[in-house]
């Protein structure tokens, strides 16, 4: 028996409570609003919701500056609302995942306040200190151009503290066993309240040896195992999804060779090369990263995404490739961020071109792993480049053409997009629900098909021979064989599928979108036509095929 683990064949939907739906008119989204839209998410085909941080916080970094790990920001609701929410999700078969920001706290967190107030306090060693300004204080900033250093002097503490991110986010010292114990307790608490997993923020920095000043220190991989052990003891099917923008060859250590550390990781290298493929028509670098993404332990899984709440980070592409992506998708200076990324939403990046949007989604949905969708991308929401930094792509959800996009009856804390082609009067859920050809309804259909193809999340994959502008992949799992073909060019082309990796003689490739059957020729090859920017999904024998080797009979057939 091969265990079918929930996170291997689900669709994760990422949202920030504050931007989803405001139920009480204070201009900020809340749990009651989100609950009101759970049926929408269920209808879309979402299997898990990933909530951005919702704890009490000064929100200088959208809640990634936590003041109370056990709390719920009062503007979003209470613990009661949270538990109602997890219960309502459970009744709909939707899992809840939440952001887990353990690398740093807010500088207003009581631990940090105690640490600066008294050098003998036990909390002092919860953070990382230096008496003198370290020589590398102006190196390694995550937000270059906005963040000035990684060490800041605190007058009250009379010492310098380390912060990989902004100065109001002091790094926790996980070399301290008491800090580790605190962090485990936070995980245990939220599991008890009904979550099924965590999106773990900034994992490479959390476990990094630098900043801790221990000579020859290794990254704290053992902590990843510890946190998984704890979670699985408390709740057997809980998972961790790591945010770690690192090369694929380094990822195995995060999963653990025995599959005993984190369950899932975002595949940033595939994300960056996928955008390069869209910008250039060349799938070569994407194929390389897909090949480099192999060899995971049985329980490990990649998560794939197009856009998230941050900038599209293309910093790891070679210079010439990055230049092409910038030129195509973020040519203006105000579209770019931190010298490495693009702060736009998906739809405007692709010029609102429906064929390119479908192509991008189709590629992402057929990458080996679990797809993660960003709220609003299912309707092709736009961005507001007048907002600072990453805020551009974090505007309120566009529900209808009522005032404030139906997001709030009050004054929205963050402006709703009201002008231009992506304004809420043109782009909203209500309009698209009523239109069977809308992006929303297309996405819903694609998600249904994606979930009917467990081989993508569970199976073994092969990249089939194809010219550079075509990506053709084949998946095999428990006798199911599927083939996905993508044409990166904006012209119609013929393509021949050769050499399926298992003996498929005589069996038709059935197109899942159209139910068209393509029979193999005498040599066992399949001839296809791909439309400009076309994508085609096939299952050998079709989705209704019960027994490997049988062809379903047409009505009235022999
Ligand atoms: C990564 C998050 O995705 C980002 O939004 C945040 O600013 C940093 N971590 C710091 O927590």
Q: Descriptors for this entry?
A:
single chain, six-stranded antiparallel β-sheet, alpha/beta, eight-stranded parallel β-barrel, binds 1-deoxynojirimycin
Characterise the protein shown here:
With 558 residues, this protein is of the alpha/beta class. It is built from 17 helices and 22 strands. The protein has helices spanning 17-20, 31-36, 38-44, 79-91, 110-117, 177-192, 203-206, 221-234, 252-255, 268-280, 284-292, 319-329, 346-349, 354-365, 429-433, 439-451, 454-458; strands at 12-15, 48-51, 95-100, 129-130, 151-154, 159-162, 197-200, 239-242, 264-266, 301-305, 312-313, 336-337, 341-342, 370-374, 460-463, 470-477, 480-487, 493-497, 509-511, 517-518, 526-530, 535-540. The strands form five sheets. Strands 1-2-3-7-8-9-10-14 form an eight-stranded parallel β-barrel. It has a six-stranded antiparallel beta sheet with strand order 15-16-17-22-19-20. A three-stranded antiparallel beta sheet has the order 4-6-5, with no helix packed on it. Helix 6 (177-192) packs parallel to helix 8, helix 10 runs antiparallel to helix 11 (284-292) and helix 14 packs parallel to helix 16 (439-451). The two termini are 35 Å apart. The model has no long low-confidence stretch (mean pLDDT 95). It binds 1-deoxynojirimycin. 1-deoxynojirimycin (NOJ) binds at residues 61, 64, 101, 165, 201-202, 243, 309-310.
